[in-house]
Amino acid sequence: MRPFAWLSLFLVAIYFVYGAYIPFWSLWLASRDLSADQIGLLIGVGLAIRFAGQLLIMGKANRASLLIPACRYLALASAVCFLLFYGVSGFWSILALMLVANFIYPTLLPLSEALAARMMLQVKLDYGRVRLWGSAAFILGSMLVGALVKQSGADWVLHTMIIGLLALILCTWLPMSPAPQDAISSGQKTGFLPLLRQKPFLMFLLVVSLLQGSHAAYYGFSALHWKAHGYAENVIGYLWAAGVVAEILMFAISKRLFSRIGYQQMFLIGAVGCVIRWTILASTTALPWLVIAQLLHAVTFCVSHLAAVRYMTQQMPSDQLIPAQTLYAALPTGMFTAVLTMLSGVAYQHSGGMAFWGMAVLVLPVFVLRVPGQKKPLSTHVS
Hints:
cell inner membrane, mainly alpha, single chain, HcaT-like, MFS_assoc_dom, disordered C terminus, about 0% strand, Growth Hormone, Chain: A, about 375 residues, transmembrane helix
């Protein structure tokens, strides 16, 4: 199977599961009689353990030829972990299992990004057109689960995730041709520590941490917030779907839209979108404004993520892409977002939607920070 088709199917399965998990896992937890601060702690701890899982697992799968085998084993282990949720109850049991599940499953995301980045260099893969299939699957998952939860209860969050994980296992055993090939060495030291000693890369991590971390309150508590203001679960699913529809359109046109715009300008565009979006969510729950805020997901997440991918593929030597992708997943969208999710849980418990104001303030430093470029050998542009 060609890389475009393989990665598209792989992302469809991954993001179908996330379409159930991200918007509605808090509702599944609430159905287990957990409070908002307990839910914030559980989600935050889950995000934090991703940091360790991604660093450890991606540190072992540090060559392109190891990425697909790693995907196979992680998909199987993920299905086993989430099946175990059927037999747990109580805060501490759920916490223990969430630590294990979040150690394993989220690592599939940086693996998919590393595969896509490698194939962008190897076969000139159009990243945006591959990634949009994952976004489409997220819409399907969120809309389906919203309707099922409304009709049959929160147990369908977990049921749907299991179905998606079984499909994911099947996808990983399909052959890819040409297979990912290990990059030609740039002659530079590779691994996490050499990257963390580079000031440009540290500035990159700081900027993307602020942009992606500002989504913490939205990912963790938007469903609870909207439900508390009278919105049914299926409407919440439609709102999440609206955001991802906008994301799909952005991925589809990104290559043309940003062909003459650098990653620095794209980070600024993402920051503007974040300030506007979180201000709206903090100020109102009127449906027209919520729709506008959701459409801004194309800017707050998508443009920011595309800028990060552009920085890494254009500025990093090809044999440093996997460590860079790992740190991008583990720190900004892992550890940093985990801390912010836990803080958002406390804020939401005491002040409700006012927690979104903190997310708007968080991105303000991006307007004055600059991510410098890096020099890399010409030989790393191709392989």
